[in-house]
Amino acid sequence: MKHQYFGDLNDYRKYGLLRALTSGSNLRLLIAWMLTPDDGRTDGRKIGYLNKPSKYERFDAELFRNLRHSLSTAERHVSLMETSNLLADAAYYSEVVPDARVGRARWFESLKTLAGGCDLVFLDPDNGLEVPTKPMGRQDSSKYVYWREIRELWGRGASLLIYQHFPRKKRSEFVAEGMNHLGQLPGAPLVEAFVTGNVVFLLAGQNHHTDDLRAGFARVQDSWSGQIKLGTTEQQAATRSANR
């Protein structure tokens, strides 16, 4: 995550997803921004949706109005979400992620400490899951979350939601691969993907969180139809079509 992305269309969907998953539940949310420095690129300029309330406001009116107001009055910064109360009772981890291995290890130790008091940890890297060309410690490795980190957080009892930008490959196959990988976490009873136009959010739910999470899935489907699709639903539809 970079501050320059705050409030863009991906962000609107992201916060809407988090609100739908946790609203009315007993889940304590931790947002690990996985911040990296702004780079001046055009990424994150997708804010034209804020000028189209007739199309976008209906998905989450309170969130939409807050983001539109924030972007019209303040510099883009994740602290605008932290102070908004849009994600009630959420905790936040806002330290910048270093590339260097030693610094990354310290960063992760602090994250683990915060995660100990939370149920659902949202990991928000710039790009997503680790790739072979960016081993930990290499330049720009801060843009990825690593499987060793995912496994350790999972082993401590946290359910996990992970931001993932789509790479240049067939999306349905990529979503299935991500869900399969998360399904290999020890004792993972619930795996889901939330598919949007540009990114997918991958979820692995602990057994003791399944009731709250499934209720959240229903809220996502009710509120965000046309913007966020459940990966399992898409896969089931594709299977039915192939078998006709």
Helices, strands, pairings?
Layout (H helix, E strand, L loop, with lengths): L8 H14 L6 E4 L20 H4 L4 H13 L5 H4 L8 E3 L7 H15 L4 E4 L4 E2 L14 E2 L1 H9 L3 E7 L5 H12 L7 E6 L3 E7 L4 H14 L5 E2 H12 L2
Parallel strand pairs: 1-2, 1-3, 3-6, 4-5
Antiparallel strand pairs: 6-8, 7-8, 7-9
Keywords:
244 residues, alpha/beta, Rossmann fold, seven-stranded mixed beta sheet, two-stranded parallel ribbon, 9 helices, disordered C terminus
Structure characterization notes:
The structure is a single chain. The chain is an alpha/beta fold. The protein has a single domain (3-242), classed as Rossmann fold (3-Layer(aba) Sandwich), CATH 3.40.50. Helices cover 40% and strands 15% of the residues. The chain has a seven-stranded mixed β-sheet with strand order 2-1-3-6-8-7-9, with helices on both faces. The chain starts with 8 loop residues before the first helix and ends with a helix. The model is unreliable at 236-244 (pLDDT under 50).
